[in-house]
């Protein structure tokens, strides 16, 4: 039997545990996995691009567990009442190849993306950072704000979105969550005075959500929306005066902000910072940039975390996903012994 976490169970689990405590605990799982980065089987995710968006498979494995996520990115979707990003995932036993867990991952992706942002920002933002600017207030935004508050203490949020309804929604939610919220009138207004800037917009173009002129010395930039070929958020000049941190360079080079500056552009592996091999921020006036695209190990950590937390609880049910004949060589027994059904 395979453990199964559906949307309702995920929703109830997160609501019961609380988003912020879960984010903090998930960061600990991520850090464990980032510290043993070299033990993982790594490959850039496998995308299927179309004029509508992208569908991607994100696999990775260590010696014991294999995980993958199925995820889409369709910026056009909200205009037809659908979400930009949805996902589900699987965790399997490497020794037998049998799946152990099948789970919804739209909510889990929002948690893991926010946890990764905060894990990076803890090393890359100035220690005295207080103000968080958020550009793009869609599905990921509240999770991003909560992670920055829980892990870095950023309770002041300056928010901007080109869609007034999405901005209203964020202001309403963030105010109810106890944030001090500034409803910005533009991207420039949002980042004015901010210490950490998160861009989480969705568009299928090389957009300029953040211009070089908007970026001040000492800022940490957390660019999560540019995550596909031809889909970026920052003016390239920003990269040239930033220290840029990446998850997995071969994938980020194709999907991230660095696609605009090329393969020779110097970057730092985030895992080396987490492991203490490389410094994070090195001065108060440095501009740091986490060029986040979302890598399979992030999802592996989230799947591992979920399994450890919900196994044996009512949040995980069992589904009969794998055919198991009594004689493992007699798969046919499952159909030959079934009663015949007339097709007429
Ligand atoms: N790096 C990662 O690991 C990761 C994980 C999840 C999602 N993402 C990406 O993050 C982005 C946001 O995801 P989401 O689920 O919140 O999408 P969403 O569609 O729910 O929200 C995106 C918001 O961006 C706004 N927007 C678009 N262009 C803008 C602009 N120029 N200025 C200001 N606002 C603008 C839209 O109006 C919308 O409200 C997507 O591009 C998605 O692919 C990245």
Descriptive account of the structure:
With 344 residues, the protein is α/β, with parallel strands linked by helices. The chain folds into 2 domains: 134 residues, ornithine cyclodeaminase, domain 1, CATH 3.30.1780; 169 residues, NAD(P)-binding Rossmann-like Domain (Rossmann fold, 3-Layer(aba) Sandwich). It has 11 helices and 17 strands. The strands form 3 sheets. An 8-stranded parallel sheet has the order 9-8-7-10-12-16-14-15. Strand 14, helix 8 and strand 15 form a beta-alpha-beta unit. The model has no long low-confidence stretch (mean pLDDT 96). Nicotinamide-adenine-dinucleotide binds next to helix 3 and strand 11. The site of nicotinamide-adenine-dinucleotide has 30 residues, from helix 3 and strand 11.
Q: What class do helices, strands and sheet pairing give?
A: alpha/beta
Order of helices and strands: EHHEEEEEHEHEHEHEEEEHEHEHEHEH
Mean pLDDT: 96
- Shape annotation: globular
CATH topology of the largest domain: Rossmann fold
Bound molecules: nicotinamide-adenine-dinucleotide
Q: Taking Cα atoms only, what radius of gyration do you get, to the nearest Å? A: 21 Å
* CATH class division of the largest domain: Alpha Beta
**Helix-residue proportion:** 25-40%
CATH architecture of the largest domain, by name, is 3-Layer(aba) Sandwich
Q: Give the strand order of the largest sheet, numbering strands 1, 2, ... along the chain.
A: 9-8-7-10-12-16-14-15
